[in-house]
Amino acid sequence: MLADLGQAGPAGAGEPGVTSAYMEGALGDVILVNGAPWPVLRFRVARQEKESSDVPARLSNLEEFEHLDESAADRTRRFRFVRSAIGGQTMWTINGEGFDPDLIQARPELGSTEISELITDVHHPVHLHLVHFKVLSRSGQPPLARDAGWKDTVDVPPGQVARVLVHFDGYRGKYVFRCHNLEHEDMMMMANFEVV
Ligand SMILES: [Cu+2]
């Protein structure tokens, strides 16, 4: 199969998706328009093949998640996601600090488990790199249905404290955590942690 972004024929009938019957096994061109008024990507299906893979009966194993208990936490850290003045300008900060590539706000040990208390002034979706975590509570209330399972982002409404349980496995090194609202992230609401 070849894919190219070159000139393709007209997209069909203004319909998002593809221009010809898709997945019928037909040879020929399949042109993705992706909702745009022009062709975005053309797949040229050059031959037919057999699909031999299987979908596993169980897609995910939550054993590790279920065994991750807050009694395993070595410490609790608190991070305030708040608007603060930096150099005479109002910025979005974490614990009053705007993003600084050289500033490390936490140094968890590889293999350790910690609780982070994420506190907001206004609504901030808080996102950690490297790790997935478990939402323990929201301002003393049980997690919401949408908090179930591993998370890499927790959506924290104004004035809430989200307690999350983080097991730092993977790799040592420097990673960021940040507000996932790009306007906030771009106005400094990002910080480093270093797994040591
Ligand atoms: Cu934010």
In short:
With 196 residues, this protein is mainly beta. The protein contains two helices and 13 strands. The strands form three sheets. The protein has a five-stranded mixed beta sheet with strand order 5-4-7-11-9, with no helix packed on it.
Kindly describe this structure.
- This protein is mostly beta strands.
- The protein folds into 2 domains: 40 residues, no CATH class; 122 residues, Cupredoxins -  blue copper proteins (Immunoglobulin-like), CATH 2.60.40.
- Helices cover 5% and strands 39% of the residues.
- The chain contains 2 helices and 13 strands; from the N terminus they run E-E-E-H-E-E-E-E-E-E-E-E-E-H-E.
- The strands form 3 sheets. Strands 5-4-7-11-9 form a 5-stranded mixed β-sheet, with no helix packed on it.
- The longest helix is centred in the N-terminal third of the chain and has 5 residues.
- Bound molecules: copper (II) ion.
- Copper (II) ion binds next to loops.
